[in-house]
Design brief:
73 residues, mainly alpha, two-stranded antiparallel ribbon, 3 helices, rod-shaped
Length: 73
């Protein structure tokens, strides 16, 4: 039954408030305790160091060859 702005006993504004609250709960990223993070591989770390300018391209190529030869064994 429709009585003003009331639907099933709840005012229309409260429906909006509850829907926004539920959306906020599911849409907000949150920290999960004891969640395992993916560890970076040595090659990922090497790429990040090259991108940040810590190492030069030549050093990157040398270390990449060493890593690839170790992985092939």
């Amino acid at each position: 039954m429709y009585d003003g702005y009331h639907f099933w006993g709840i005012h229309l504004i409260w429906w909006f408030v509850w829907l926004m609250f539920i959306f906020w709960i599911f849409a907000t990223p949150y920290y999960v305790p004891f969640q395992q993070k993916k560890k970076d591989s040595p090659l990922d770390i090497l790429k990040r160091r090259l991108a940040s300018g810590e190492i030069k391209t030549e050093e990157y190529q040398e270390k990449k060859k060493i890593l690839e030869s170790d992985l092939a064994k």
